[in-house]
DNA sequence: CCTTGACCTTCCAACAGTGGGAAGGTCCAC
DNA sequence: GTGGACCTTCCCACTGTTGGAAGGTCAAGG
């Protein structure tokens, strides 16, 4: 299979597959006579794994670890779980940050009349004119 | 004032202040005899505004808009509110995405025994071995 | 045989927003 | 005048992907 077909089947773009190869996330593919990358069905499987992990927000380096564990018959599920939980904790942390931002924004927006006059609590808060607490 | 003092007072690092100047977010500072950037108290004010906006997750280009509105005496608060609400909507969207990821991760982690044996629903889900739905 | 078009190749650059560090100049106090 | 704190510019790194340019390959059809 050529890269385009693998891209279609795996849901990972050809561009990104080449990128993954360049950073060593996947092995360098064999080449055909015309120097085209040549893939086996197994590679599609691997790329789908990567895509699913990316969809869960795992960073590339974590995916590296997950791939190793995937192909390790002697793995401990505890190792996998630890990675998943650590990532979940990071996500929860990001969510908390974003929620705090969103809550502040909604609060400020509620306080803003949104008319054609310049008075605006949002701008004032950013300017530090009122009781808006800096970090 | 030199950049270091402005950095301390504004909470924006000297490195970042130079970056902001280079991308035109703030005006190029006057230079002293020794080619040092020279700032006025007003610049601290402006940088604090930027820092607060960054803390709310506004991207640089939105902050550009907000700065323009800040210094526009004839602004409409509706314009400010629109920017704030658009950004809040983006944050809400990101939050929803992250929450979906985190929920899936927590679900998978709950299903994983986390012991020293290889069987692991997390890996299996990524591999597509089970009923895990691809996007 | 030659062209067309779809596909592939490599390499370079960009996005956002900093941080790190090198190599060098300036200022101030002692 | 010397040390040390500060400043300067410049380039690279991060994260992950995308876009584009310039060119090679392959199959089909005239």
TrEMBL record, chains A, B:
Going by the UniProt record, its keywords in alphabetical order are: Cytoplasm, DNA-binding, Transcription, Transcription regulation
Under the heading InterPro entries, the entry gives: CueR, DNA-bd_dom_put_sf, MerR-type_HTH_dom, MerR_fam, Tscrpt_reg_MerR_DNA-bd
Report domain HTH merR-type positions: 1-69
Which GO terms fall under molecular function for this chain's record? copper ion binding; DNA binding; DNA-binding transcription factor activity
Where it sits in the cell: the answer is: Cytoplasm
Write out the transmembrane intervals: none
| UniProt superkingdom | Bacteria
GO terms, biological process: positive regulation of DNA-templated transcription
Could you tell me which Pfam families the record lists for this protein?
MerR, MerR-DNA-bind
Q: Where is it found, in Gene Ontology cellular component terms?
A: cytoplasm
Q: Which NCBIfam families match?
A: CueR (TIGR02044)
Could you identify this protein by its name?
Cu(I)-responsive transcriptional regulator
Gene from which this protein is expressed: cueR
């Amino acid at each position: 299979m050529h890269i385009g077909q693998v891209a279609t089947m795996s849901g990972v773009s050809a561009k990104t597959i080449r990128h993954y190869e360049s950073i060593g996330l996947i092995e360098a593919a064999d080449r055909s006579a015309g120097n085209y990358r040549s893939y086996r069905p197994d590679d599609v499987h691997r790329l789908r794994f990567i895509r699913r992990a990316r969809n869960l927000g795992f960073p590339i380096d974590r995916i590296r670890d997950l791939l190793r564990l995937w192909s390790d018959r002697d793995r401990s599920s505890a190792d996998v779980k630890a990675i998943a939980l650590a990532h979940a904790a990071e996500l929860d942390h990001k969510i908390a940050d974003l929620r705090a931002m969103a809550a502040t924004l909604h609060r400020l927006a509620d306080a803003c009349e949104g008319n054609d006059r310049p008075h605006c609590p949002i701008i004032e808060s950013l300017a530090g004119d009122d009781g808006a607490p800096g970090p």
